[in-house]
Amino acid sequence: MCDIVIVGCGFIGSTLAKFFSEKLEVTTIDVIPQPELLKDCGIPHKIIDIRDNELLKKEIGSPQVIIHTAIIQIPKIIEDKKLGYGVNVLGTQNLCEIASSTPEIAGLILISSWHTYGEKDLSGILTEDMGYFPDNVEDRAKLYALSKTIQECIVRFFDEKENGKIFGAIKIGTALGENMPKGTAANIFIEKAMSGEPITPFKHSMNRPMFYVSVNDICKTVEKFISYIVSKSPQSNNNIDHIMNLAYPDPISILDLSHIVQKSVQILSNGKINPEISIIDKSIPETGDSDDKNKIHLDISKIKNYFEIDSLEKPEDTINE
């Protein structure tokens, strides 16, 4: 049975840990105790700060694959930039160095983000080799997008220089599914709708196209990626080939999302709950228009070619679950 270490026990990390708990030998690492979601899974947990390279080297053990999900998110990264740099950049460097120097470790998978492409002025097909545009996001998201870009670049450099090991990244869409964070637009909309309150998208961002992915599809893809790494049969030595898009390929706008949630709640409540949609105008200039979502498409051919994943869940299907 394959041994893996999952670094970071947030939404994605804990979901992956639970998914693999009966399939693989799993250990989780974070600076905080293991979340309640994993308490009955029998998964060993180590409290380690990934900025502490010496402790990390001592305690991480010799897994076959490291899954790196740790990230300082918005707004914490804005409030504490030093922490953001330490975890997001130095922590990633430390994990890659350990994977590089430990013979038993076959590779590392970074959970990255489609936001490395930016959010504004996008058009055409978004492919993994199109480059990085972390400045093309709203101001509050720039350090996050920059962090993900730096993380990917570190991973790609290690993938280029390490023969016999695979360092890759999965650029996920905004994740949807059970236990998703309370601060996400989808979760806020759902909670408001279920309580009978109006769903409140902001006018300035309501037309912004967003890519979404089901956590179920994330788990299935990571499972395939792990198998690919431990099989030691890479199809290419080009570092960009191990960077892969993962989201439903057609984006939806924030306004679309609010309508999907509205309809889902109406159906699930048998018409007993009919939440309104109330657009909030914060007097901020609008970005884009309602047609922007039709101008871009995410290329997911790599996960199809490498992992034989033929289809992904639509956002509306995930929300309806």
What topology emerges from the helices and strands here?
Layout (H helix, E strand, L loop, with lengths): L2 E5 L3 H10 L4 E6 L14 E3 L5 H7 L5 E4 L7 H4 L1 H21 L5 E7 L10 E3 L15 H20 L4 E7 L1 E3 L8 H10 L14 E2 L1 E3 H16 L12 E4 L5 E2 H15 L27 E3 L2 H7 L7 H6 L1
Parallel strand pairs: 1-2, 1-4, 2-3, 4-5, 5-7, 6-13, 7-11, 8-10
Antiparallel strand pairs: 9-12
Helix pairs in contact: 1-7, 4-5, 6-8
Structural overview:
This protein has 321 residues and is α/β, with parallel strands linked by helices. It has one domain: 3-Layer(aba) Sandwich (Rossmann fold), CATH 3.40.50.720. The protein contains ten helices and 13 strands. The chain has helices at 11-20, 53-59, 76-79, 81-101, 142-161, 185-194, 215-230, 254-268, 301-307, 315-320; strands spanning 3-7, 25-30, 45-47, 65-68, 107-113, 124-126, 166-172, 174-176, 209-210, 212-214, 243-246, 252-253, 296-298. The strands form four sheets. It has a seven-stranded parallel beta sheet, with helices on both faces. Strands 6-13 form a two-stranded parallel sheet. A two-stranded parallel ribbon has the order 8-10. Helix 1 (11-20) crosses helix 7 (215-230) and helix 6 runs parallel beside helix 8 (254-268). It is globular. The model has no long low-confidence stretch (mean pLDDT 93).
